[in-house]
Amino acid sequence: MSTAHLGDDLEVRSLVRVFGAGDGAVRAVDDVSFRAPAGRLTGFVGGNGAGKTSTMRMVMGVLAPTSGETLFGGRPITAADRRTFGYMPEERGLYPKQPVLDQLVYLGRLRGIPAASARTEILDHLERLGLADRAKDHVEKLSLGNQQRVQIIAALMGSPRALVLDEPFSGLDPAAVDGMADLLREHTARGVPVLFSSHQLDLVERLCERLVILRRGEVVADGSPAQLAARGTVRHRLVLTGDAGWVRSMPGVRAVDVDGPVALVEVSDDGAGRRLLTSALERGDVREFSPVRPSLTEIYREVAA
Ligand SMILES: Nc1ncnc2c1ncn2[C@@H]1O[C@H](COP(=O)(O)OP(=O)(O)OP(=O)(O)O)[C@@H](O)[C@H]1O
């Protein structure tokens, strides 16, 4: 039995995975280190082929690292640890011809969850994800989004000690996204680290306390959304009473967008910002002059493009 207890971080250290050899070798994961802290939702983002799935597979032991380590609570992750983890792989593996409830009970038993307690938990999760009336249906009769919900329940049942979820939100409608987010928060509240990949940046920004951005196998950003926002280019929003077109000719000011009395600008330094504000005040009332935090999408474009 694992000695790990709730409150352990998941961590990867100097993780490398090379596919192929010689000239055709691909360094899919290239010296990746980051931590998914206990009790936090960590979003794992990056473009197609950035190395997210390969990293998660190495955490779950279904892909061998070329080098580097995967750790839980500071110790190398063991097979016993992994049996206590909830994993949603990229390749969804449900049996089409088996009823939903039977299948989930079976998957639970593979993870050592007694059938009776698995049933209670599964029925509760089906209810919460709006699938209570589908428990006896064959999986193949469900829409893809509903099959996805079943897959999610398979990963979440049995009070896992860590959750590793590859694209858990893809294909879900907004109500299911909210239901799923609530479920994940219940797990972080128990002290579980949750690592999930996603291409939906708005969702990651809304949900995550931490995020890790990969680009071509390397970590290019790692921190809270606020920490990442502080790294991005800060802009200012200037709202005047008259037309703001004149800001375009101010030295040290780049007008990103001007629309009537509203201008979004980047200033080269504090001095240029002060000169801009002074000029604006000389021309009349200034209704607003405020820094604009870059959105995650903008930060992502800066670091991952
Ligand atoms: N089994 C494999 N054999 C050879 N190359 C592979 C294998 N698995 C992944 N790769 C390559 O490794 C790189 C990273 O792929 P990976 O699936 O980890 O990225 P990803 O970030 O999950 O991408 P996506 O968002 O598209 O799912 C890609 O170039 C991919 O082609």
UniProtKB/TrEMBL annotation:
Keywords: ATP-binding, Nucleotide-binding, Transport
GO function terms (MF aspect): ATP binding; ATP hydrolysis activity
Residue ranges annotated for the ABC transporter domain, each copy included: 10-241
N-terminal signal peptide: none
Pfam families for this protein: ABC_tran, DrrA1-3_C
Entry keyword Nucleotide-binding: yes
Keyword Nucleotide-binding annotated: yes
InterPro entries: AAA+_ATPase, ABC_transporter-like_ATP-bd, ABC_transporter-like_CS, DrrA1/2-like_C, P-loop_NTPase
SUPFAM superfamilies: P-loop containing nucleoside triphosphate hydrolases (SSF52540)
Family recorded in the similarity comment: Belongs to the ABC transporter superfamily.
Protein name as annotated: ABC-2 type transport system ATP-binding protein
Provenance organism: Myceligenerans xiligouense
